[in-house]
Predict the structure.
Amino acid sequence: MDMTEVFRRIDELKPEMIKTLSELISYPSFRREPEEGAPFGRPARDCLERALSVCKELGFKTENVGGYAGVAAIGNDKPLIGVLAHLDVVPAGDGWTKEPFSATLEDGKIYGRGAMDDKGPAVSVMYAMKALSDAGVTLKNGVELIVGTDEECGSSDMEYFRGHAEFPKWLFTPDANYPLINIEKGRVCARFSAKCPSGVLLELYGGRTVNAVPASAGAALSGISAEEVENAAKKAGCGVELEVSSDGGVTRIHAVGVSAHASTPDVGDNALTALIRLLSLLPLDEPARTLICGLDSVFPYGETDGASAGVKASDAESGALTLAFSILDLKDGELSGAADIRFPTCESVESLRKKLSAALSGIGFEAEIGGVEPHCVPADSLFIKELLGAYESVTGKEGKCLAIGGGTYVHGIAGGVAFGCEVDGEDNRIHGADEFIRDDALVENAKIFAEALYRVCNNDSLR
Ligand SMILES: [Zn+2]
């Protein structure tokens, strides 16, 4: 296999790639109210249409799938491999020193919302396909690019796609990390509640989103002094910062920890479980005392492997189960909370549902538990070997499979893996201010994709 001519063509196409990416960045394609023919709003629809018209100009066969997604294909046969990228973005947010929706080219970088997530990678795929066509190499099977427009808000675009089009046998998404992610842990969300009329415990709150370790939590108590709270805090020995104040017989506690994504709870410092530990040492009245002590025993401060909830598990391929206690709220006489669990392939939603329900009912809570199973493509599959082979030959780095706790765009799509484009040691500020991609990464990604597509397409064992 000689990729020299394909790579030469990709180098030549660099200015065109930058131009197309700049154009796509100019659409503020974050999710908005639906309009006729624009299920996620006009900018996302326009961005999709523009991307498809560029693909048409490049000589690909294109199809708009109901305004939800688009397909651009090369080769005569039914596509054997597809690449799934997305054209929607998250809103700009604060802190930008550049224009978020007008590309800035500076010091070899292209700045703009979506530059790395995921418009840049989509453009690299487009020009990888263009170079394969131009260089006249034989592709024994078809290749297609699928572009979606709702990755950031729940991937309903892919639900629609599934009902109206077909995924190719092999699929990768350049919407995560190199080298390659073949295992995405399963996820279970537990929501639980118990009656808890207010007595000593007047207020209790912490966390807003189920998929994050809460950085702050608070409580208000009647008839317990600030001094009692401070003594209990010494006994509790939690690392979080505590502010305690008393006024008119009410003592307020505010705990400040460190937030983290629910898939990596060990890097955070959970303000909520620290507050629960402290409250469990105070003379609360019933039923708050029993409920709080129960929560402290099932979700103890500092524990993130689910051992005390009876769900600890791990396997060699996907790693250990993680548990983040993320929300607790006392409102209208009800104490309700939530926890987020990411689990390895040796566990299942149903088995965890049973174990968690038992643990929670044992401490007086009713629970509603649901989730999604892990996503896995075996690391020794020939498809993965070809992708990692392309990665190694273009970058000279070692290709290996990764398992993650989060979900990518291909979660639940059979045969799908995540391949690119973030690399260790570089922060492209995805979802943050001044998001960027290096222009030479745009080119290198195109080379990796071109070789990967070529290898998979021409491997008869993968048909
Ligand atoms: Zn993305």
Remarks:
- The pocket of zinc ion is lined by residues 86, 117-118, 151, 175 (CB under 6 Å).
- The mean pLDDT is 96.
- The first strand starts at residue 61 and ends at 65.
